[in-house]
Amino acid sequence: MQKHISNATFKGTKEQKKKLLDAIKKHKQEKGALMPILQEAQTIYGYLPIEVQTIIARELNIPLREIFGVSTFYSQFSLTPKGKYNVSVCLGTACYVKGSGDILKKVSSILGIEAEECTKDGKFSLTACRCVGACGLAPVMTINDNVYGRVTVDQVEGILSKYLE
Amino acid sequence: MKSLEEMKAIRKKISSDINVSEKGTIRIITGMATCGIAAGAGAIFNKLKETVKSQNLKNVSVGQTGCIGVCQFEPLFEVFMPDGTRTTYVKMTPEKAEEVIKKHIIEGKVIDEYTIGSEKALDQTEFYKKQKRIVLRNCGFIDPESIDEYIAMDGYFALNKVLTEMKPEDIIKIIKSSGLRGRGGGGFPTGIKWELASKNEADQKYVCCNADEGDPGAFMDRSILEGDPHSVLEAMTIAGYAIGSTKGYIYVRAEYPVAVKRLKMAIDQAREYGFLGNNIFGINFNFDIELRLGAGAFVCGEETALLTSIEGKRGEPRPRPPFPAVRGLFGKPTILNNVETFANVPQIILKGSDWFNSIGTEKSKGTKVFALGGKINRTGLVEVPIGTPLREIVEDIGGGIPNNKKFKAAQTGGPSGGCIPAKYLDIPMDYDNLTAIGSMMGSGGLIIMDETNCMVDIAKFFLDFTVDESCGKCTPCRIGTKRLFEMLTDITSGNATMEELSKLEDLCHYIKQNSLCGLGQTAPNPVLSTIKYFRPEYEEHILNHKCRAGVCKNLVQYRILEDKCVGCSACSRICPVGAISGELKHPFKIDPQKCIKCGECMKTCKFSAIVKE
Q1: Which residue of A has its CA nearest to B599?
Q2: Are residue A68 and residue A98 in the same domain, yes or no?
Q3: What ipTM does the predicted assembly reach?
């Protein structure tokens, strides 16, 4: 999958760095520690900017290129910051046959961004995700942790408006 | 460490709590799997607890459970009365839940219009009666966050039995003679896999569980992990003893937060009870399980890719042999089984291989769980004996196709599988029959399609998926799938020739033969099987520039029927590109050059005067 790489300036805090170093320390001795560390780093920073990957490379003594290889391989790892609200439209089979493609288009036209992008004000980001496993409620979209099931194109504006203010 | 006697005591105590008739209590359970929670089960669960408390009802217990299996009725809860009656209340809201407590629980009057239908209870419905539940026996019944409830359903008794009464080779013999085959899709005999790993001497061996359920449209494994996590832990520990391993890994999708949470809880509880850890049941056997979260790569469902990912690398597959049973995780002998496969194991140990052997077809034993979705009246999770005809699943269990539409095809096996057309509705669904007709059992996603689905578009959809998910290591898959996708795009936009169709088929066969791993070898299946059964649709797209389902936008024309149009101008006002013009009270016209085929006009027209053709 093509990864979007952010050119936003990195704004990590000291607390975040401390958390990251603690997480690295916790996992360092495990076999295959890189994935759990990247997952924790993403929870701490919200995404994986190159600066964070560099810290991990130095601490684990693994070449940065190897870490970059892993972080760009998995779709869960994001190299761009996520918006305050991450809108995710499921394009799994069950949702797709029930018309989630049109829902994605509608969200995209309302927010003015394509999938895997973030609005300039940092408020919304949009993801086209694979099956979230709630196929019985297809088509499904999520905004952060809220799941909206059996969505129709006409409902999209109403759902988003709750977050627009 | 719990002893056998203590386990029996827990089983006795808790099963009397679950079987309400013995204690005279009323039991209410709410379905709290991901889809239930998404539909709002959390608020209902809280409301039930609150109301029971505020009404001061002493003989009522309110509990949670995993997936009950009838997604279209979420959120729902069930009431078990001391007289043995069961009532399933569906599509609940907190207000309705409160009403149920007041009318049903306090006054004893069932509110008919809120129940699942004339049958009133889930276990009386056609949907349920035709099923046979082995793997899902506890899902939707016990509280997945309570190890005691699992023990009450004979949980961990199989582990006790193998550790105190059996030798490792006896376990392998039972699993082999049961005929259990891998439920992840391939159908490899589980007993043989275990035997291979047991015979390889090594200082460390691993037991891994594939819970990276990546097929879009499949959610069996999630439901088992959310509804009955201990069954997987118990089976992995049994497998560890059988092959001589002390360490297990469960590789679970990070997209399944509820499953991850319940697995973590289950592992902690099992450690506390001494079912994981050192000297389990007092014998010289140690085993522990660690969770590893996937990070969203479909290819990691392939066994060698999954193991590479646990090692913390890019999840790329590697050639086999050597098979994981010889050189797997960290270079050591490893067995990797799917969640559903493991969930069968404790039952086989307790009830014996002859019992398991009696279910299913000659070469495929036991049951299979399908996630039934798409254009079907009752979506949900169904477990049927292997060999059940598709017609029974679609018509009897699934209740047919909505809106009086006709069945067109069923898609099994996700992006690796194929379509089953209407003419095969009656063949028994087992591993070998499905492979013979160009589909596959797959992990169990079963998506039903009706006449409004375009088969070329479906093939294109799956290829779009595999192009995205191809790891890029081998050329036939990386470049081949991309070319397939481009060809399909040409066909769906009316730019292809018949020559391209035959090239498409050739390329499919080439990719199948030359790709490194299962992902690439099966990626062309959706194309090949749709060409095989729906060739006229491909030809129509190419020769007549027509999409009979009206899905492929480039081939669709919107037209205003002159005799029906009253000239109200509603369509021309809604049209975003000003493609519709005309004079009030006279038939309007669409300019096909300007039309972007958004379909807004058709939705707006109150006189059904606009058609798509």
Answers
A1: A102
A2: no
A3: 0.83
